Amino acid sequence: MHGTTTASPPVPTPLLDVARRLAIALQLGLLIVLIYQFDLVNASFQNLCILTFFGFLVHASLPRQMRLHCFLALSLAGIVLVLGVESLWLLALGLVLIGICHLPLPYWGRLALLAAAGAALAVLRAGDADLPWSSALWPILASMFMFRVIIYLYDLQSEKTHPGPIWTLSYFFMLPNVCFPLFPVVDFKRFRHNYYNEDAGQIYQRGIDWMFRGCYHLLLYRLIYHYGVIAPGEVSSTVDLLRYMVSAFLLYLRISGMFHLIVGMLLLFGFNLPETHHRYYFASSFTDFWRRINIYWKDFMMKIFYYPVYFRLKRFGPDVALVISTLVVFFLTWALHAYQWFWLRGTALLEAHDALFWGILGVLVVINSLWEAKRGRARTLRRERPSNRQLAARAAQTIATFTVICILWSLWSADSLLQWLLLWQAAGPSSALIVAVVPSAYLASWLLLRAPARATAAPPPARNEPPAFWNTAAAHAVAIGVVALIGLPAIHGRLSVSVADALETIRGDSLNARDTAMMRRGYYEQLVSINEQNDALWEVYNRKPKDWALDAPVEKEFEFGRYGPNAQVVEKGALLRTNRWGMRDKDYTKEKPPGVFRVAFLGSSHVMGAGVTNEEVYEQIVEERINEELGGEDAIRYESLNFSGGGRSAIRHLDTLETMVVEFQPDVVIHVTHRQDELMLLNELSRTVRAGREVPFEFVSTILRDEGIEESTPDAVIQRRLQRHVRPIIRWAEARMVEVCLSNGITPLWVFQPMIGERLDEETDLAELITDAEAAGFTVISLAHAYDGHDVQELQLASWDDHPNALGHRLVAEALYQALRERADLIGLPTAVATSH
Amino acid sequence: MSSISEEVKAFILEQFLPGEDPAALTEQTPLVATGILDSIATLQLSTFLEERFDIQMQPHELDEEHIGTLQRIEMLVRSKT
Fold first, then answer.
1. For labelling, which of A140, A530, A759, B81 has a CA lying 20 to 30 Å from the CA of A619?
2. Which positions in chain A touch B44 (Cβ < 8 Å)?
3. In a domain, A753, yes or no
4. Residue A636 maps to which CATH number?
5. Which domain holds residue A769?
């Protein structure tokens, strides 16, 4: 029985002890290989794992009385390893907070001083003041102190003796907290009392077990994240809705995985802490769910709030005290969640659906608690095989609980209450069955199937004998080794293509398609509150420098030139210059000079060249190369004019073409498109309508009218109503572009440019786009393979910005140049020029 | 087993482990870690201890250190009487 035995643990012989430590070290080494193979958590954690490996060997070899000092030294070394010089600020701020807890003042005085210190730090956290430490320090400092200092002060007050500074420092700065902004709320008393309270080998082996469990939780999370998640806008049936809800809940595997890694690592240093997240997907009631999920949080709330509130209220009767103290716990869970959010992310979190989630869960737990208080809960000390009837009851309860939690979780995960309600509307009337059937099944399972004897729906049965060390160690070593081997490309490359692809996808910590789209859309810049479940995207965005995106006025819909004429600005780390017409380009006369062949580019930020200098933009590279390599003294001069800009979609290209481009008398217009066009069109239309501006095309404004879309319509509603119209609008816009081109003697050319990281097949992935473009009358060029043979990291500006960097632009330029050479006769370039080189 | 432990054991068996073999519940059996004493049962046990032994329990005593086993419960009760 872990963490609870009171008898002294047996002492193995020295030789056996060494052998067991080596067995643990072997498993830990394999685990670290696995963690590296699959790039789990982050690079800092991977480095910390190396420190942990050698630290474990030293720590476990030391006499017991020196081990805590060793753990503290390792913890501090880990902080310095990860934070460098900034670790001094972390330690200094932390020591001030700890010092306040020990001031010779009454309890309430110290509490008030801590609150004042917290308020001062909050002002700094929320403000833009220049501080001697970076913003990355806040989440770590917060995760070490925002809850632990509450527990620490509480224990100082309730305990008669103080354990000493080594325990205190080990508790606050504990390894591996520096890598995890989200960290279990470890109890100070338990941290000390469970220290080596069992046979060390068993504690270490359990640590390995939980770390391995953490790894496969994280790998499962990545599978769900890449292959299970469905965007709210894609939900159009009950099956989609179910997929959306279940995947939202399963994404929590990321948190449970990290918590297992954390707690498992602490066990390797003798802290025999309780299991975290005990089979929470198999909870059979709401109270059971509350007990199983984030056990550390539940224990924290019980200790600091639930029991004290209950004791103050028990004179009103146990039921009243139970109901109120439970509701207080859920209210405070919501409030502390917002508090945690503020410290970790620096913004307030006050969303109706968030409050609704905790409110509903609180009420369900209250009802369940009252039921259990009156009727009792099944418990046993025996290992008994339940009857079929009992199993059926348990299964029904578990399925029903899982379903209700999935529904609630989807509410919590949604961007807004409105977006969540729209999901149900989109899924159709049959989705209401979920609401009707689940509670009924739940009730039926409790009332009809519940076993007469309360002896089976049991907590984990007592294990009086720990599992044999060597059997467990051998099984784990083999299992960890197999997973680590599968992570090797040389091994999984031999598997079927789909399995190999899936393994390759989950080997890295990349964003899925939905989050990549959100990142491109500038999702976080547009939302006051960030979707709290979306940690993957948040982590990527958190790395972004504050001045990455320029604080320039946003280009108004259907007006050209965000930066204005003759501007020079630095955006995304690169100098951006505009000409007198507001184009990001060299200066050109409006009147086409004699002997010049003009090409006009219409595209988005990927063509405008976000994050690279003017000279690095592929449109300019191609222009210069054609003039250098295909031109000559007597040849026609080639000019390419860049009418592209960030966030522009097909209808913007059409508008720019009609109102501006034709005046420059181009010979060819290149309409550059990509697979985000539909999303960009939706965003553009939504922004235009909500800004109260008119869309200057009758075809589009009729659709908006017919769908009842107006200025006050929320974004989520607009996006959903326009979903089915997007492709027809693009078809119409492309046909109209061709019409305008041909009537002005211009050759219309359609160029597909891939996004970084897209692996595309023209015949399948691009079939519809190409068919539509050809039907409209465009000559089609696909650059789908321009980036082939290069890693994403080589080509994108940064992990938080997947615009192509200078190399990416050179590759696109090369692909476009070759395509233009091959099709010179079709696009109007002088044939003699093309064929003479 | 002392009379305090016997009385507490009888209460736990009756309230939380009906039908359980009394021999399976020893002085060292973990009560919190096994889930026998969850939050609701802990409060019910606390009320029982206060009423039966005429003592005043404190919220911070409702943890493994104080009520983790029958033996610890007995020590807690003795320290208050």
1. A759
2. 318, 373
3. yes
4. 3.40.50.1110
5. 592-835
